[in-house]
Specification:
Keywords: Isomerase
Protein name: Putative phosphoglycerate mutase
Helix content: 25-40%
GO molecular function: phosphoglycerate mutase activity
Strand content: 5-15%
Distance between the termini: 6 Å
Number of helices: 8
Enzyme class: isomerase
Oligomer: single chain
EC number: 5.4.2.12
Strand order of the largest sheet: 3-2-4-1-5
Length: 234
């Protein structure tokens, strides 16, 4: 049994590296994002998807509609998969939020926000932990932060600690995880967050790069290798 995680298609906000953590703001896919979602339909059909989950944001639900236009399966919305609440940074450049986060750390709540970065990630992981209880194979259309955290967990080395910033997750690139592996990742990431690994008010965080407005780490993306848990099973 397995879950395919994908980040939603490109939006006018994400193309400009603006943050949107309020599902009431109607941010939808731009033309390129919609086109890429349509082009991904054949891959989704091959997966034999039996259930679909999205966050409560319009862009994830629109992406799911485009991906599953020719597929009949139950679709559910789980607000635990939502983007973090960015508070006063809503609609503003990611670098502004990143600068604040580096100064205050992942356990602090931005002004006007109901949650910290760590609280948001724990919420998302709680939603992920519930997935193995529903029909599979399943597809989850979520946001870049969750996809980046899962991809980091997959590619981490034994000595690595959860960093303050993660490389940007690509749009609509599937990350397929077996149920066993997903629960292991959820447990590991939950432990990392609760221990506050790599946080402590941003101490030791790499410098924010003005050369890339979203991937704020000066790190190459991890090399992807075929893994057994990335094969769909029934």
């Amino acid at each position: 049994m397995s879950t395919c995680f994908v980040r939603h298609g490109r939006t006018p906000y994400s193309a400009r590296y603006l943050v949107n953590g309020d599902p009431g703001v109607p941010v939808l896919l731009d033309d390129e994002g919609a086109l890429c979602a349509r082009r991904s339909r054949p891959l989704v059909r091959e997966m034999g998807v039996r259930a679909c989950w999205t966050s409560s944001f319009p862009r994830t639900r629109q992406t799911a509609d485009l991906l599953l236009e020719e597929i009949s399966c139950p679709r559910s919305v789980d607000a635990r998969l939502d983007e973090p609440d960015y508070g006063m940074f809503e609609g503003r450049p990611f670098l502004e939020y990143a600068s604040w986060l580096r100064e205050h750390g992942p356990t602090a709540r931005p002004p006007g926000s109901r949650e910290s970065q760590h609280e948001a990630l724990l919420r998302m992981l709680e939603g992920c932990a519930a997935l193995p209880a529903v029909a599979a194979p399943r597809i989850v259309v979520a946001h870049g932060f969750l996809l980046s955290a899962l991809d980091w967990c997959r590619s981490r080395r034994p000595q690595d600690e959860l960093p303050l910033f993660l490389p940007e997750a690509p749009y609509l690139e599937p990350l397929v995880v077996s149920d066993r592996c997903l629960l292991e990742w959820v447990e590991f990431l939950t432990g990392e967050v609760r221990r506050g690994s790599g946080s402590s008010e941003g101490r030791g965080a790499p410098p924010i790069s003005s050369e890339d407005h979203r991937t704020v780490l000066r790190l190459p993306r991890p090399v992807r290798t075929p893994l057994e848990e990335n094969e769909f099973d029934a």
